[in-house]
Structures are given as structure tokens and as C-alpha cells.
Amino acid sequence: MALIALSIFVWIAFLDTGWGSKPAAYHSLCRLEGRTADCKGRRLSTVSQDLPPGTMELFLDANVIQTLKNASLVRYQVLQSLSLCENGLELIEPGAFLGTRSLSSLSLANNALSVNYSATAAALGTLPALRKLDLSGNLLNEAMMATLIQDLSFLESLSLARNSIMRLDDSHLKNLPRLQHLDLQHNYIFEIETGAFDGLRWLQQLNLAYNYIPCMVEFDLTQLRMLNVSNNQIEWFLAAENDAAFELETLDLSYNQLLFFPLLPKQNKLRTLLLMHNQLNFYNNIFNDSEGTVQLLFLDGNITNITTLDLWAENHHSNLSSLQFLDMSWNQLWYLPERFFEGMSSLAHLNLNHNCLKTLQIQESDLVSTLVDLDLSYNQLQDLQMNLDHRSSLANLRTLSLSTNRLRGLPAKIFTHTTKITTLDLSKNPIKLCASHAAGSPSCIDISNAGSIRNLFLSACDLEILDTHIFQGTSIAHLDLSDNPRSLLDGLGPLKDVAQSLQVLYLRNTGLSAARTNMDFSAFQKLVNLDLSENSLASFPESLAGLELQILDLRRNRFHALPQHAMRKLGKSLHEIYLSQNPYDCCQLGWWDALHDRDTVRILDWNQVTCNFSSKFIRVANLPESVIQNCKWLTADMTLLHLVLVLPTCLALLVAFVIIFLTFRQRILQMVKSRYRRSSPY
């Protein structure tokens, strides 16, 4: 009996919450799912009062609630998350949150809370369980911000992005001892006074991106794990010179005006260091020791500190043994100091592209066996020197990008030590590939027997005609030979050793011509992506019809027509095709219909495909009916013309035969009789 009574009590309580009374879909304005009510964009001016009382998550974004009145949420006493973004909200009355003491997440982004921020601050102070608050996009200055958060001592996450904050001091954030995440991006901050963040003892993530901070000196937030100060005007970053242990794991200084490598904390846990898009350089080769020091003056109230720093010092004096990702791309680096990589025993990804490096010398002690990805593209490298005698040097390297440099060769035995390399980009370098008889020559690069390479990029290297066995011993799946106009003048012979492994092949502008070269693709059975653009092909390689191509590029050739049966076969597997900038004949477009009728084939440049009719180029997609009719008449006229030309010839031959027969009839008959006359047995 007691069990039955308890069951009835639970059922009554369930009905009383409002969730068991009727299906959620019955609500006229809001979409209900579980204990979530979604009332976005319903032009509401007040909070709906007919939602289930057990609602725990309520979305009221994109409405017109300009004032959140007293007791607006008293019905929803178990509400935990409330979003009022983009309402034009100007005022939250002090009693608006009456009864919602369990509210832990509140989003008020993109409103106008700067109008009545004092009254709104009083309302926020009535939320003892509030842990996450979003005040971004409210035109708040630092005084308004400080007022709004003054009584939120239990707050853990705070967003103040996209406001009008210009400076920070120790009074603005002093009452947030439990704050862990602080977002101040997209403000106008140009000054941060010493001690501004001292009260945030648990702060782990700080986002100051997109402000106007000129420098960061005496950085001493030891508890911080992630700092983002990208897109500011920082010229130097100087951590406090002490032996304190910093928890910093990610530091983003990208898109600033850094002139020097940052002075990092001596003891840190840095894993990611982003320095791209600055003005970084090393200056030891430019300035002598007497010019290499600078005195920095720090003013802190009545206390003046003078610190002398050697700005040209090329050793980072920091423990970077945990660093895994270093990006120094898009800077002004002319060289790297000796032993720059020493101590980076965990470095896996190094990006140095878009700099001014002319030479790169890496000693044995600098090379780390953990390096996986090395990008040196878009520099001025003429010489790449690596001491690869050590067995573990670059043993885990998988990607090496050297494109757009001035390299003519690579370090000897580089492929012997980089046994795991899968991607090599040598495009836009004046290199030579070693023929089979010249393997080991320092003046060329020997690709053969680099069995681990799967992706090889050699575009725009000005390669000569390739040797027949240039890729012997490799299993390349992705090969780019584009913009080497002489490389395949003798045909596809140099590719026969990788024909069975190739899946992606770019042969744009490689000197291919079906009239002069062997264009048999029948051995390339795994090929799915083929680029034949910008060549001199006048006839379509019939062997392509036997492949299961998915992407095909035929632009800028000399095709007058494409074989209709081949297009039908290719259409079964083809997904994308490029066809434009060929002199197609408007009266031979049966192949176009074969492709266009297939829903699975996308002609990506369909609007640019043209054909020639009477020396005029017309878009195939909008071919006029008159041209189609003229093509039909032209076909009929050609048949009639052939008939007219053949019939008189046949008649003339017949008449000539008759005349000759009649003229020489007697002689012909006598000749026949004499040949076939037989003597009588009697």
C-alpha cells in the first residue's frame, strides 16, 4: 500500500511540472524538447508565461524584449540557463530573477545594457548560482563593466567581448576570485596597469585579441594556461624574469608588430607558440655588443624600475622542452641563430614559411627526432644544410614543404634518414631530378627508392624531359608535374613505374600532345583525379574511358569534339569535370548531351564552355535554336554533297565502260571465244 501511495505521489508531482499534461509540440510559439524551450525570433516583448514550469533551459534570442520586468521568471524556479541575446535589452529590473536562484548560465550578448547598467547590476547580484555570464556587444566601458560584475564573486566564465573597454586597472576585476575564463577580445584596450589581473587567482584562459595593446612587459600570470593577444600592436613581449613556474600552455602573439623573439617565462609548459604575421628578425649579425642593450623604464605609482635587456640576444633562455607547435611564418627572418632548436625536444610542427631565409644550417644537436611537419616554403633558400649523420635525426618527419625557394638540391642521403616522410613539396624550385645513371649526384635530386613518399609536388620546376625510370622504387599516390612544359614531350613513359599506385595526377602544361606522344592511360587503374589542362591535345585519349575517374580537367586544349561513347562510360563514375576554353564544333555536341543528362556529373565551368559556329564562339549552355537547325541542315547538305560528288563519277565510269565495250566489241568477243574455245572430240 505504501508503494502504491508513493507511485501516485510521484505521478501527481510529474503532472504538476507541466511536462506530463500535454505533448510539447502543442505550444503555439516555442519549440519544446525535453526540458528546453526554444523561443527564438518570435517577436516576443515579454517572457512567455505558459511554458512548462519545469523548464531548465530557455532561449529567447532575437526577440524585442527591451525590459526584463520584475518577477518575469518567477514561474520557472528550476531554470538553469537563460539566453536573451539580440533583443535590444536596456534594463533588467532588480526583481526580474526572483525565484530563479538556480540560474547558472546567462547570455545577454548584443543588447543595450549600457543604458541602465546600475539597475541591471542590482538584478545580477540576486543570482548566487551564476557561473557563466556573457555581456558581449553591449557598448560597455570599463566603469560600467566593473559595476555590472561587482557582486558576482562566484562567476567562473565571463565574456566582455565587443564592448568599449579602453583600459584595465586593479579595481575593475577585483571581485572575481573564482573566474577561470575571461574574454575581452574586440575592445579598444590600449593600457593594462600592473596588477589588473592579480585578483584572478584561478584564471586559466585570457583572450585579449583584437585590441590596441602596444606591449606586454613583466607578464607574471603564472596560473594562466592560455593567453591570446593576437591582432594587437604589440612590439615586444617580456615575461617576468624570475624562476616562477608558469602553467602557460598556449601563447598566441600572431598578427602583431613584434620585432624580437618574445622573452618567455624560464619555467613554463608551453605546447603551442604562435608568432606568425609579425616583424620578427634576429639582429646579432647587424649590431655589435655595444649597441645590443636597451634600458626599459617601468613606472608603478611612485616606484620606478629600470631593467636592462639585451634585445639582440639570440638564445631564448627558456625551457621549451614541452613545445610541440611553433609557427613563425610571415615574418622577416633572414636567418636562424645557431642552436636555435636546442632543447625543443618535443617539437612536432615547425612553420617558417613566408620569410626571407637564404640559408638554413641545422646542426646535429638541433635536429629533433620528434619533428613531424616542417614548412620552409616561400623563402629565398639557396642552400639547405642538415647534419643527418645521427641515426635518429628527422626520423619521424612526415611532411616537408620547400616550395617557392631557389633550391637546386637537397642534403645528401636525406631520404635514407627520413624513412617516414609521406609528403614532399619541391614546387617552384630550379631543381633537376636524377636520371637512373646519375643517382647520387649532388647536382640533382634522386627520388627513386624513396619508398615512403605518397605525395610529391614538382610543379613549375622547369624540369627537362623526364627519364624513363625517374620514379622507380616509389609508390606515389599524388603527383603534381604541372607547369613543366618539356617534362612529358616523349609521352607517359616516365610514369609507368607509378602507374599502378597513382590516384591523383596533375599534368597541366606538361607538353602533352596526342599526335606526338604515347597517351595510353590503361595502366592507371587507381586514378580518380586527372588534370590534362593547358596542353595541346586535339584528340581525346580513348584509354581514359576504361578508368573510374571522379575528377577530370580538360581545359585549354585543342578539342573539336569528344567521343560520345567515352563520355557515356566516364559518366558512370565521374563527379566533376572542367571543359572550357576548347574550340569545340557546335555541330558535334552529342558528347555534351551525354554528360549534361547525367545528374551525378557536375560540369563546374558549364557557363564558360563555348563552341565554334561559322567563326563565332557561342556558349554551349545557351545554344540558339537557329544554330541547332543550321547544324541539322548542314549535316543534310553534306550528305547531299557527298551524293552529288559520288553519283556523277559512277555514271561517268559506267558510260566510259559502255563506250569502250561498244567500240571494241568485236575484238573483245573474238578474244573471249579464242580463250574459251574447246576442240570437239568428233
From TrEMBL:
Organism domain of life: Eukaryota
Sequence intervals crossing the membrane: 640-664
The keyword NADP is annotated on this UniProt entry: no
Signal peptide per UniProt: 1-20
PANTHER family in the record: NEGATIVE REGULATOR OF REACTIVE OXYGEN SPECIES (PTHR24373:SF388), SLIT RELATED LEUCINE-RICH REPEAT NEURONAL PROTEIN (PTHR24373)
Name by which UniProt lists this protein: Transforming growth factor beta activator LRRC33
Keywords for the protein's UniProt record, in alphabetical order: Leucine-rich repeat, Membrane, Repeat, Signal, Transmembrane, Transmembrane helix
UniProt cross-references to InterPro entries, sorted A to Z: Dev_Immune_Receptor (IPR050328), Leu-rich_rpt (IPR001611), Leu-rich_rpt_typical-subtyp (IPR003591), LRR_dom_sf (IPR032675)
Keyword Transcription appears in the UniProt entry: no
SMART domains: LRR_TYP (SM00369)
